[in-house]
Amino acid sequence: MADDRGICFWFSSGGRLFRFNHMDLSELNVFLTVARERSFSRAAQKLFRTQPAVSITIRKLEDEVGEPLFARGARSGQLTDAGRLLIGYAERILNLRDEIRRAVDDLRSGGRGELSLGVNESSIHALLPVLARYRQLYPQVHLAVRRTFSRDIPTELLNYRLDLGVASFVPQEPQLAAIKIFRDELALVVSPKHRLAKRGRADLSNLGEENFVAHIVESPFRQRVMQLFAKHHVPLRMNIELPTIESIKRFVQMDIGIAIVPRMCVRWEIEQGLLVEVKVRQLRMPRDLYLLYRRREPLSHSAKAMFELLKPGSTPEAAPDGKT
Q1: Does this model's pTM top 0.70?
Q2: Residue 253 to residue 190: CA distance in whole angstroms
Q3: What is the pLDDT of residues 213-262, one digit of tens each?
Q4: Residue 194 is part of which domain span?
Q5: What does the DSSP assignment read for 271-300?
């Protein structure tokens, strides 16, 4: 196991430059625990240390930074400006340490390891066949698919909380790269009992009196749908907002309203006759999915294998056996 001592780095704040000399990473772990627990005593209990030992560690870290990290006399562990700044760096450093350990363990075990993949609720539907195939090919890998808001995936990757991510946009961060892996589009679905079900087609103007079931989470595609209705001067009545795609589908099946959702999320229900897709002439909104990863950094064996399965033109048989 790697030693947690001997790191030296710089960071700046307010025009000042701070240096850490041969800092023990365990000090950062103590700092983060106090910050999260908002209490020195609770942090001591969680770390199985005495409270004086935790206080000594924090003072030593403050000496390294040259600034107080917690407000003096604040029982709640209230952070100073320097403390709030250090949190982001500390999390990234400790996550990177864990990433190094996982990579070394992955190398030693010949591809047995773990893979952390960040996706949002709707994108997971496109990945299920690939995830099933990955599990068949690499049963020894612990696969953790983490539900993550799309807007947070770039940050989670940069902070080493994720190995790979899937999102419907290309990130602006120069440290990240993206390849297109899937193309979908938005679809209008209704209950088989709905008046539009037998017609199968509709004009946008036919939808002004309908009650739409919408996802409560804001997204770029939701904004585009709202703009489309506004452009054509058609009212968009989003009288119901629900927290999940599954609950939206159930409400539509119960004929409580209609919904515009990614087609990949309702493909099975359409095939089974539980929902009916209605083609809307003006509704042409392709939705691409991208695989996101850290640029110029080697992928672990397990991440490389997933990358090969997801990249365009790949087939399950062409996937590597965990070797780079």
Answers
A1: no
A2: 7
A3: 999 988 888 999 999 999 999 999 999 999 999 999 999 999 999 999 99
A4: 185-285
A5: HTTSSEEEEETT---EEEEEEEEETTSPPP
